[in-house]
Amino acid sequence: MNRLLTSLIVCSIILTSCAQKKGNDYVVTIKTNHGDMVAILYDETPKHKANFIKLTQEKFYDSLLFHRVIEEFMIQGGDPNSKNAEPGQSLGNGGPGYTVDAEFVPQYFHEKGAFSAARLGDEANPAKASSGSQFYIVQGKKYSDAELTQLEQNIQYSRKNISLREVLFMPEYESVRQQVIEKQNAGDGAWLGSFFEQADTLIRKVKPEYKPFVFTDEQRARYKEVGGSPHLDGDYTVFGRVIKGLEVIDKIAAVTKGPGNRPVVDVHMVVTVEEMSKKKIEKTYGYNYPASK
Question: Which domains does the chain have, with CATH numbers?
Fold first, then answer.
């Protein structure tokens, strides 16, 4: 096993057991020239939690930039190349030299304030492994029921198309793929449409875990009430949440941007982590831990 991965697993076990034994957790504070944000990291994403705490304790993030900022979407930072970066320098490709395995937990989604891991795109990264250091904090926007329904359908179509393509390129389904190609060349839209509509059964033969994408009632409620970026759900690991300073996200998102959505005036960060009792966290920040924790 990779030595780095082993150390992260050991670290996560230590951190989680410590938190459970003492009733403690870890509070992350991100200081910026626009104000401070305080975040909690989830035990259910132990590799990401352990890695972020480790880097923070090593002062990895200090003096780095929020180098990519898109209003009504998110603010992104954690590229080590952003430290002392020249004005206009292209950023976003740096990291600590490793990735972190994806940890998708359905109960945590991209509502405003979600603390999430950046990553390379699917073509170069089909396992959806996270960047070792780059993260983003969701701003997003509020959605109506109609908008969420349309988005849900779009996500369903896109992910089903990707899954079906993966199946058709497997050697055992070569004959099916050739039939699809023949129908495409013949312009038989009716056959192709019917095939796609019924493809769920074929996909599940190869991917038993496959399910059509739907937003839960909780997701719908939160995206309508506080907003977020729902199109990212299930594709990027959400491993924490801002519990104080949501207004700072808005301030940073609103700054003037240049090429690559980099703020014209640099937005630096200093990140610290503090172990604190869960009772104190709830009392200080108004964050309520789920009953299962």
Answer: 3-142+226-285 (2.40.100.10), 146-206 (no CATH)
